[in-house]
Design brief:
about 600 residues, alpha+beta, 4-stranded antiparallel sheet, 23 helices, globular
Length: about 600
């Protein structure tokens, strides 16, 4: 759709890719779609309706797939998008189905509703097209072996494609002969196929070299984000990517490269390798491998991080005004060092081992300060506080946990201040004025005896961050996960802020006609509630800023509003001498 592409190029705010999903949808879908409406209508050759396909939603880690779909549905619902439909595929998940069922304009279709004959016919057509040299008898054997499982057909096609026709016939005979007879044949079918693919790729190597190649494969699957063979190789302390490239080439049936990043075709391959009972000798022990990658990240940071890593010549210039800075950062912070800086906490949490405490202690001695510097140079200093707090809760001994928590407070103190606009001020402003004399900041300061020393600072009562607003603030609250702050103001508005950077995320305005006296987040952070001097309680969508409900009934100023713990009800208090309870979904008064 060229009109949409033009509108996206013109008005899309691409910086939002680093923000939450709701903000991304608003900036990269909703705004350009609305802006392109006239151009779409004026183009006679353009179709009247468009379809967006979102495949494999369940492959987003954790519950992020559900969160993404919920955000998408909420945005679509609040903006009443026209001429556009969404086709989403996912494994079955009750929470997803429940949320989708709450919308009237939706359709479900489960793969188990497809008749076996229809599935077999589709697989037969696919195999005949992709492997035209196969004899019809061999195609039928594969159709029978696939048992309606398309991922099996797709994987075996890639596997057979690089074999000679005579070899293909032998492999088909073996695979069809290994077909299980028990009811769980779908899993067993893939297991047999994955075992064969891995045996072909690794079977001829001595144990030492086999382990080397398995570590490459495990790292490709265990990185926090999909990445290149070079980064994977350097995480394993290999000089070049030759062996990693060879591993990917030999596993072409299950892995592929796109934009210099390695992906797997289907999540079932990773599931197979992470299950010892299924993968057997090819099993990836997740705890052990994440422990290895945690150590690797800290070792890479120890070697690559240093004071003034980008050789900034002066503290009298903002980062944005330094034309040479981007180039210097790219030269001094390699992709592998950048990966280690951004994702060490991911591997730490998944390794859960006290054996890493010595590595963590060494990191806090000084390199954690250099790490904050590097993260600031990459524009990611807002993540430092969250990562350090995460580490403090990773099951480490209490004294070390306290040191990480102290480092997290310092990181927030820096990222939430104007000092973060010029990286050298991490040292000469933030570290110099940090009021606490706790570890590790006390040791950090001892390494820089020439930075200014301040007496009679405000001690531990000094604020970590100051957020400037345009009007007097009457009420504030944190989201339950601590990632956002909500404030209510005298100018009738409600604002949502990033708690790590102090940046404004949303302004909820236009509904109150008097000062806002009370604000709160729902427990899941998806909604906010506000009370005002206009006698009203209002419910908002926290991600889009759209007003959802007006709760009317109070006859004087509302002084307090809050959600119940499950988010199903809202309670409000007023100077009309009443407390009222409301249904959060309908806005009806209950008590």
């Amino acid at each position: 759709c060229k009109p949409f592409a033009d509108a996206l190029s013109h008005c899309g705010n691409f910086d939002t890719i680093h923000q939450d999903v709701d903000t991304q949808l608003e900036s990269l879908l909703i705004a350009p779609w609305k802006a392109s409406k006239l151009a779409r209508c004026a183009e006679p050759s353009a179709p009247s309706q468009f379809l967006i396909i979102i495949d494999a939603l369940d492959e987003i880690d954790g519950h992020e797939g559900f969160k993404f779909l919920r955000s998408l549905l909420n945005v679509i619902h609040s903006h009443h998008l026209q001429d556009i439909k969404f086709f989403v595929t996912s494994r079955r998940e009750q929470a997803l189905e429940t949320h989708v069922n709450s919308f009237t304009d939706r359709e479900f279709y489960h793969l188990e509703w497809v008749s076996p004959k229809e599935a077999q016919a589709d697989i037969r057509t696919y195999l005949s097209t992709e492997l035209p040299s196969l004899h019809s008898d061999d195609v039928e054997k594969l159709v029978t072996t696939a048992a309606g499982l398309f991922i099996y057909a797709a994987t075996i096609t890639k596997y057979l494609a690089k074999h000679h026709p005579q070899e293909q016939r032998k492999l088909i005979e073996w695979l069809s002969g290994a077909m299980p007879s028990h009811h769980s044949r779908m899993t067993a079918l893939l297991d047999n196929l994955y075992h064969q693919i891995l045996s072909d790729a690794f079977g001829d190597f001595e144990e030492e070299f086999l382990l080397h190649r398995q570590q490459v494969l495990f790292t490709l699957l265990c990185t926090a984000v999909r990445t290149s063979t070079l980064i994977v190789s350097q995480l394993l302390e290999h000089d070049n990517a030759d062996i990693a490239d060879e591993v990917v080439q030999h596993l072409h049936a299950v892995l592929y490269v796109e934009d210099n990043k390695v992906f797997w075709y289907h999540k079932s391959f990773a599931d197979f390798l992470f299950d010892k009972t299924r993968s057997k000798k090819f099993w990836c022990h997740l705890d052990d491998h994440h422990r290895l990658l945690t150590r690797s990240c800290f070792q890479i940071m120890k070697k690559g991080l240093q004071f003034n890593v980008a050789s900034i010549p002066s503290s009298f210039i903002f980062n944005k005004d330094n034309p040479a800075l981007v180039t210097m950062v790219e030269q001094r912070i390699s992709p592998t060092l950048g990966y280690s800086c951004q994702h060490w906490h991911y591997h730490l949490l998944l390794s859960m081992s006290n054996s890493l405490e010595s590595v963590l202690k060494e990191f806090l001695q000084l390199h954690a300060l250099f790490w904050i510097e590097a993260m600031n140079l990459m524009g990611l200093d807002g993540l430092c506080e969250v990562m350090l707090q995460t580490a403090s809760k990773a099951g480490i001994q209490s004294a070390l946990a306290n040191h990480f928590a102290e480092a997290a407070r310092f990181a927030l103190y820096f990222s939430g201040s104007a000092a973060s606009l010029s990286t050298p001020h991490l040292y000469i402003s933030a570290l110099a004025t940090w009021p606490s004399n706790q570890e590790p900041c006390r040791t950090w300061r001892s390494h820089f005896p020439r930075i200014p020393a301040f007496e009679n600072v405000a001690g531990n009562e000094m604020s970590l961050m100051t957020i400037q607003t345009k009007s007097g603030v009457t009420s504030v609250a944190f989201s339950s996960d601590g990632s956002h702050i909500i404030s209510g103001s005298d100018d009738h508005s409600v604002q949502v802020w990033n708690a790590s950077t102090g940046q404004e995320q949303k302004v909820l305005e236009g509904w109150h006609t008097n000062g806002v006296t009370s604000v709160a987040f729902s427990s899941d952070g998806s909604q906010t509630v506000s009370g005002s001097g206009d006698h009203l309680v209002r419910l908002w969508d926290a991600s889009t800023g759209q007003g959802l409900k007006v709760l009317e009934g109070h006859t004087y100023k509302v002084t307090l509003a809050a959600f119940s713990s499950d988010g199903s009800q809202i309670v409000s208090g007023s100077e009309d001498d009443s407390v009222r309870v409301w249904d959060a979904s309908t806005g009806q008064e209950l008590k």
